[in-house]
Amino acid sequence: MTSVVATQFLPLVSAAAATRDFMVISLHDVAPSTRDLADKIISELVRRGVRVCSLLVVPDYHHQGLATRDRQFVSWLRDLESEGHEIVIHGYFHERPRGPNETLRDKFLTRLYTDNEGEFYDLDYEEALRRITNARDEFCASGLTPRGFVAPAWLLSRESERAARDAELEYTTRLRTVHDLRSGEVFPARSIVYSIRSSWRRDVSRAWNAALFQFLENNVLLRLSIHPPDYSHPTVWGQILRFMDVMNETRTPTTYREWIAEQRLMVDREA
User: Fold this and answer.
1) 6: number of CA atoms within 13 Å, CB side?
2) Which of 162, 179, 181 is closest to 170 using CA atoms?
3) Are 49 and 253 in contact (CB under 8 A)?
4) CA-to-CA distance for 109 and 199, rounded, in angstroms?
5) CA dist., res. 32 & res. 39, Å (int)
6) DSSP state, 64?
7) What fold characterizes domain 20-270?
């Protein structure tokens, strides 16, 4: 990692950071086409006391065009970043074409678990590195400072994770873990997330997440992952708001970037 990147990644330490328990609210699939919904969600988060969140931005969502060419969108992201929100690289196209020789496991993960969006599920190193570095450079050229990479649906091949590290990004996440790409440390931290593609999926998600939330309540880090369409389903969105209200009583809102930095500080203090 270059000294410039290391300097830019210094944590923003506040009095709140001294508390033990944290929550990271991440908003996925942020793109020009989802901006209106994303803006409503962020505004609601702020009203609920969640001052910062991690915004997972897709560089060219479903091949709709480069996000960085939309000046209003980029200006909006810059404003959010200046307010303390974090910009995270979230895949590149957020799409994965179906392959000719897929196993049952491949089909389950890329078609049922996610709707053909597991872009980095089986990318080779060279292609993963190309997409990640392109995203990083496009964002940086637009005045943004991404430090993390999160694969769509958290489906990340080992080669893609190595590519993210070699692109000098600081961390990645999976459904159940947060990975410090610099130190190699892996933090267990399951995320709460919803599947809303059908009514039965929404019902199962709400029941599962109600139980999961209670199970995870005592974790040092509690993660809640939101997708823009969640906002359009009242029963799902209502549960998300209830979770946030409970979390806000005992937890400090932070971003992945700040949380990783705080873990590194703790290690340095103990050394």
Assistant:
1) 6
2) 181
3) yes
4) 20
5) 11
6) S
7) TIM Barrel (3.20.20)
The mean of the pLDDT values for the chain is 90
Give the start-end residues of each E strand in 80-236. 86-89, 148-149, 171-173, 177-180, 186-188, 191-192, 221-226
SS3 at position 179: strand
Query: Six-digit token pair at 193?
Result: 């997330």
Q: How many CB atoms lie within 10 A of CB 161?
A: 20
Q: Which residue has the tokens 């980029």?
A: 74
Tell me how far apart the alpha carbons of residues 8 and 116 are, in angstroms, rounded to a whole number. 35
The pLDDT tens digits for 188-246 are 999 999 999 899 999 999 999 999 999 999 999 999 999 999 999 999 999 999 999 99
* Cβ proximity of 63 and 94 under 8 Å: no
Give the pLDDT mean for 7-29: 67
Q: Which helix (H) or strand (E) holds 270?
A: helix 256-270
Do 84 and 60 touch, CB atoms closer than 8 A? no
Q: What is the pLDDT of residue 14?
A: 44
Q: What is the pLDDT of residue 102?
A: 78
Q: How far apart are CA 29 and CA 52, in angstroms?
A: 17
Q: Which residues pair with 178 in a beta bridge?
A: 173, 187
Q: What is the pTM of this model?
A: 0.89
- pLDDT over threshold 70, residue 88: yes
Query: What whole-number distance in Å separates Cα of residue 271 and Cα of residue 269?
Result: 6
Query: How many CA atoms lie less than 13 Å away from 250 in the CB half-sphere?
Result: 11
Torsion angles phi and psi, residue 190, rounded to 5? -70, 140
Give the residue from 77, 79, 74, 115 showing the smallest Cα distance to 97. Answer: 115
